[in-house]
Amino acid sequence: MQSSNEPKLKITILGAGGRLGAALAREYAATHEVVGFSHAQLDLAELDALRSTLAPLPFDVLINAAALTNVDYCEDHRDEAFRLNAEAPRVLAEVCREKGSRFIHISTDYVFDGAKRTPYTEEDPAEPISLYGESKRVGEIQVLDANERALVIRVSWVFGPDRPSFVDAILKKARTEKEVVAVADKFSTPTYTPDIAAMLRPLLGQGAIGGILHLANGGECSWQEYAQWALDCCHRFGVPMEAKTVGAVSLGEMQNFIARRPVYTVLGTEKYARLTGAFPRHWHEAVADYVRDHYR
User: Fold this and answer.
1) 255 in a structural domain
2) 6, 19, 31, 114 - which has most CB atoms within 10 Å?
3) What is the pTM of this model?
4) Which of 214, 69, 92, 111 is nearest to 153 (CA)?
5) How many domains does the chain have?
6) Is residue 259 part of a domain?
7) Cα distance from N-terminal residue to C-terminal residue, the chain
8) CATH code for position 153
9) Phi, psi of 213, deg, nearest 5
C-alpha cells in the first residue's frame, strides 16, 4: 500500500498485457495514476513510434516490462531479439533522460552463465550462454549507458495469474495425468508477480537507486522441486489432481530445447534488503498463495 507521505506518481507501463506488466499495473493503479500499453498498442520493434508516442506523454516513471522472452525463438531470430531486448530499451532510456523521468527496465537471470553454485550478486560478471541472455545483457548495458539514473531490475522464474507460466503448465498436466516430470538439475527461484510489484514500490521515486538490482523471492529450488511444491499445495487446498509426485528428468534430456540454459541462476537479494530493510518472502509462501488464490 501507498504510505501517507508517498507522492502520487504518473506511471507508464510497457508490456501491460503480459504476466509482470499486468501485475504492476494492478498493484499501482489504486495509489498512482497508471497508463499501460500492451504489445498490440505499442510495439517495441517500432522505434520511431516509441519516441513519438512516449515523448509527449506526461509521466514520472516509465517501467519497461516488455521483451521478447521466448528463449528458443530468440536463438533463431537474432535481429529481432536484439531490436526488442536491446535497441528498444536504449530508446526508452533516452526518452526518459530527455524528459527527466525515472526509467525502470526489467531484465533476467539468464544474463548469467550458471557456473556459480551460490546466489549471484549484482557485482558478478554477466556472461550469458544463449542469444536471449545476450540480447538482454546488451539491453542492460545500453540502458545504463544512455541513462545513468536508470534502474535495471533482474528477476527469475516469474509466475502469476495474468499469463500461464511453467507452474501452470505442470498443474494443467497433473490434473488429468498421474505421471508428470520436470527438470531436476536446473536451479533458480520462482518469483511471484505481486511480490515483484510490492518490492519495486519503494524504488519508484526519482531519488531511488539507479544501476542494477536483483528482485526475487527467497530460497532456491529446481524445476522439479518447484513443481512438487505446487502440486503438494494443490492437494493441501483440495484442488483435484491426478498426479501425486513429480518425476525427475535432466536438462540434457530436454531434446526440444534449442538454446542452452544456465543450470544455476539464483539471484541474491542482499542489496535490496540493505536498501529497503525488507527481505523478500520465501518462494514456498508465494507459490502457496498463488495456488490457494487462483486454483481453488
Assistant:
1) no
2) 114
3) 0.96
4) 214
5) 1
6) no
7) 26
8) 3.40.50.720
9) -145, 135
- For this structure, is 28 an active site residue? no
DSSP string, 247-296: EEE-GGG-TT--S---SB-PBP-HHHHHHHS--PPBHHHHHHHHHHHHH-
State how far the alpha carbon of 52 is from the alpha carbons of 3, 55, 95, in Å. Answer: 34, 6, 10
Q: What is the DSSP letter of 8?
A: P
Counted residue by residue, the chain has a size of: 296
pLDDT, averaged across the chain: 96
CB 137 within 8 A of CB 183: no
**Residue 183 counted as domain residue:** no
Which of 28, 110, 132, 272 is the catalytic position? 132
User: Which residues have C-beta within 8 Å of that of residue 118, sequence separation ≥ 6?
Assistant: 266, 268
The three state secondary structure string of 107-135 is EEHHHCCCCCCCCECCCCCCCCCCHHHHH
Give pLDDT tens digits for 69-104. Answer: 999 999 999 999 999 999 999 999 999 999 999 999
Q: Which three cell numbers stand for residue 97?
A: 533522460
Range(s) of the domain holding residue 79 = 10-164+191-218+266-281
